[in-house]
Structure formats: structure tokens, C-alpha cells
Amino acid sequence: MHGRSIRGVFSKAVLVGFALVLAPAGLAAELHGRLDGMRFVGMFGPDGQPGDRKDTLYFGDGQFWSANCVPCGFSPAIYWVRQAGDEIHFRGEMASPERGMFTYTGIIRGKRLTAKIHWRQERWYWSIDRDFRFEGTLSDGAVTESASRAKVRAESAGPKARDQCGVL
Helix/strand/coil (H, E, C) string of 4-61? Predict the structure, then answer.
């Protein structure tokens, strides 16, 4: 009898453990793509300074992209979200084979999005590590560009785009 109760407690503990592990995964599945169809219009600039460049962040097809970054070769990328009270936190990394990686970490409160952006480009002679910030407001207009079209534009960015990328 004592052996059965230990086995029963152990079985229940295993089931509770699985529930705790799988519950956040289920929540993540519910939230994945939650921002799809949204676009935030605002300003981009060096962290700690007022934004000096207009930018738009798009969310669609489970991916996000920046109007400024796509012409510079940064393709749309998958984003992750989690709900924390009234806030939605998101994270994503847009990569360019030539220009490095932008890592976005952002918070949406109501209709406002604030994101910290870290740019890293490793080179054999020196590496770039710079921090930026984007602050924007949810736009009422529909997202008119798909992630797949933005990806095609990013992949076709040529040497001329390098001059248009400003910080790059």
C-alpha cells in the first residue's frame, strides 16, 4: 500500500511537471503571430538620443521587418512574443549576410511600441557593436507589403543600397 501511494504521488508530480512545461509552450503558440497585421510608424536613432530617421516596423506572416532595414539587405525574421500583464514583449533578429545582425527587444503598451535594437557586425579587422532605439505608434492603415515581398527586396539589395543605409 505504501508503495502504491509513492507511485501515485510520483505519477502526479510527473503530470504536473509536464503541464508546467507544456503550458508556456501552448501560450507561446497562441501568441505567435499575435502582432501580425500591425505596423508601427515612428522614429529610429541612436540609443539615448532623439530618433533622427523615420521608420516603420511591420508584423506579418509570423515575421517582422523594418522599412529602413529591408533595402539594406536585412530580411524579415520570425519574432517571439509573450504577454506580461497589459504589455506585449517581443524579440526578433534580422540578419543580413553582408551587414550583420539587428536584435530587436521591444515592448508594446497600448498603441505604443518601444524597441531597443542592437546591431552587431563581426569583421576580421574590427567589429561593430551599436545600440539604437525605435519608438512608434500603431498605424490604423493595413499592412500592404507581405513578408515574402520584403524578403525578395532584401535579398536583391546591392552595393548601391549600402550608401542609402546611413548608419551602415
Answer: HHHHHHHHHHHHHHHHHHHHHHHHHHHHCCCCCCCEEEEEEEECCCCCCEEEEEEEEC
